[in-house]
TrEMBL record:
Protein name, as recorded: phosphoglucomutase (alpha-D-glucose-1,6-bisphosphate-dependent)
EC number: 5.4.2.2
Acyltransferase as UniProt keyword: no
Catalytic activity: alpha-D-glucose 1-phosphate = alpha-D-glucose 6-phosphate
Alphabetized Pfam families for the sequence: PGM1_C_vert_fung, PGM_PMM_I, PGM_PMM_II, PGM_PMM_III
Highest classification ranks of the organism: Bacteria, Pseudomonadati, Pseudomonadota, Alphaproteobacteria, Rhodobacterales
Family: Belongs to the phosphohexose mutase family.
UniProt entry keywords in alphabetical sequence: Isomerase, Magnesium, Metal-binding, Phosphoprotein
A Gene Ontology cellular-component term: cytosol
Length: 542
């Protein structure tokens, strides 16, 4: 075996964002691009004698990148790599394998919900031994390393056969090729009442699960159809494809339109769900009713005790700052702690590790619990199924009862995509400068009670994260939040988060866009969106 040390030079821009390093696929396939970043990971976390998990969402370049990473792991002295068959692992399944096998972390190849293909997106991220995304201090160190790198190590060897489950080796490093689904499915079986869900399906309950030609297909078929007895064909778009069949695997009403149409059409199934490229996001829909992710988090928190894995109650609930406050109301009623963190799953890790929170969620179709350290799309779907099986009500009935009890947080997110970066930065800069003067102003008939740029002090390790989103709060409890996306690969995406609370009993059945209209106008005006960006309407509304 020969270890080659290859001379290289820093490549600009290898800075991990909200969730790892994401670039256009041709950029990642460029000369030394993947190699520089992977070497920087190993230089920061150390590889000698260690065990890592490796897998990805199966998008274009996934298979070849996996071979490069294996060769580099071997050259850097790793003892063992556990890799999903075919280099496939959903993000939550990878997180579980990292924890289950008490490994030293894992490398996940994914650009999540971004499209895949030769001209689309690719990504690489490192997860820590707790199974969660590397915290900012670690990703910063990796980025710094990419700016100083002079060489990387790689073994000269043929590709490892990843098509068959079993143990093999690469230049002295053990390579364990594992079934990507088995351990994850067993974990789910331990958390949920599969018997009750099976009985519900046997009783004629119908579901549609849209995996959007991405990684959850095999997981969904095995769990929903094979183990829970859902009718064959319940899972659609269930074969992962390198280009996701041309789909944009982002489970929201815009991109999962076929599912929405079916759920709002004649003869709709009882329950619908979709998941994203790497399986950590979810959207759930009832017959004729859409469940916003913020509401989903609140309903799951209020009902989690109905599932065996959470029968003893929750320790706390955490949500990202732009997520609606619906979950806070549940936490208050349950007498448990609630936490408000910056955007990005990595901020939940400490709360989960410290046992302060059991369930976490983001408005961006992410929900999860302390069973892994990533958000988990199928987990959320299964918890909903467990709740439906126990309560024996429709999704619409469960939501109506929830709002009657807690009030309703009308909520929407408006995304303005592919804005020129300088224009977006100028807009945010002007808004930040205007913040001190906003308090007390009356806009659209609503008095501004406060405005700030969200900063977070982690209650566990004391680390501070600043500039996490501008928020403007109104006296009536309404608010809007603006921040720029940290996961895009082209220009800037402005995210505008809008929220308004209705206590009930009246006014709980409005169309969210109508209920939010004054907040939307206030946000567009105060941030001077049209003036800076030329945009008068969002590209995506969720
Ligand atoms: C987006 C979501 C965020 C999520 C992240 C990774 O990040 O808004 O909630 O954690 O993707 O899935 P953003 O593009 O807003 O930085
Ligand atoms: Zn994802």
């Amino acid at each position: 075996m020969t270890i080659r040390t290859v001379a290289t030079q820093p490549i600009a821009g290898q800075k991990p964002g909200t969730s790892g390093l994401r670039k256009k696929t041709p950029v990642f396939m460029g000369h030394h691009y993947l190699e520089n970043f992977v070497q920087s990971i190993f230089d920061v976390v150390g590889a000698q004698g260690k065990t890592f998990v490796l897998g990805g969402d199966g998008r274009y370049f996934n298979d070849r990148a996996a071979q490069v990473i294996l060769r580099m792991a071997a050259a850097n002295g790793a003892a063992r790599v556990i890799v999903g068959q075919g280099a496939i692992l959903s993000t939550p399944a990878a997180s579980h394998l990292i924890r289950l096998n008490r490994t030293d972390g894992g490398i996940i190849m994914s650009a999540s919900h971004n499209p895949g293909g030769p001209d689309e997106d690719f990504g690489v991220k490192f997860n820590m031994p707790n199974g969660g995304p590397a915290p900012e201090a670690v990703t910063e160190a990796m980025f710094k390393r990419t700016t100083e790198i002079t060489e990387y190590k790689v073994v000269e060897a043929q590709d490892v056969d990843l098509s068959r489950v079993g143990r093999t080796s690469l230049a002295g490093m053990v390579v364990d090729v594992v079934d990507p689904v088995a351990d994850y499915a067993a974990l789910m079986e331990g958390l949920f009442d599969f018997g009750a869900i099976r009985a519900m399906f046997a009783g004629g309950f119908r579901m549609r699960m849209d995996s959007m030609c991405a990684v959850t297909g095999p997981y969904a078929v095995e769990i929903l159809e094979n183990r829970l007895g859902a009718a064959r064909g319940t899972c659609v778009n269930a074969v992962p494809l390198p280009d996701f069949g041309g789909m944009h695997p982002d489970p929201n009403p815009t991109w999962a339109k076929a599912l929405m149409d079916e759920m709002f059409g004649a003869d709709a199934p009882d329950f619908g769900a979709a998941s994203d490229g790497d399986g950590d996001r979810n959207m759930v829909v009832g017959r004729g009713i859409y469940v916003s992710p913020s509401d989903s988090l609140a309903v799951l928190a209020a009902n989690a005790h109905l599932a065996p894995g959470y029968a003893r109650g929750l320790k706390g609930v955490a949500r990202s700052m732009p997520t609606s406050a619906a979950a806070d109301r549940v936490a208050e009623a349950l007498g448990i702690a609630s936490y408000e963190t910056p955007t990005g799953w990595k901020f939940f890790g400490n709360l989960l590790d410290a046992g302060r929170a059991t369930i976490c969620g983001e408005e961006s179709f992410g929900t999860g619990s302390d069973h892994v350290r990533e958000k988990d799309g199928l987990w959320a779907v299964l918890l909903w199924l467990n709740i439906l099986a126990v309560r024996k009500q429709t999704v619409a009935e469960i939501l109506a009862e929830h709002w009657a009890k807690f009030g309703r947080n009308y909520y929407s997110r408006h995304d303005f995509e592919a804005i020129a970066t300088d224009k977006a930065d100028a807009m945010m800069g002007a808004l930040r400068a205007a913040l001190p003067g906003l308090k007390g102003q009356v806009v659209e008939g609503m008095a501004i009670a406060g405005a700030d740029d969200f900063a977070y002090t982690d209650p566990v390790d004391g680390s501070v994260s600043t500039k996490q989103g501008v928020r403007v709060m109104f006296a009536d409890g309404s608010r809007f939040v603006l921040r720029l996306s940290g996961t895009g690969t082209e220009g800037a995406t402005l995210r505008m988060y809008l929220e308004r609370y209705a206590a009930g009993p009246g006014g709980l059945d409005l169309d969210p866009q109508q209920a939010l209209a004054p907040v939307i106008r206030a946000a567009m005006g105060i941030a001077r969106v049209a003036e800076f960006t030329g945009r008068t309407a969002p590209d995506v509304v969720t």
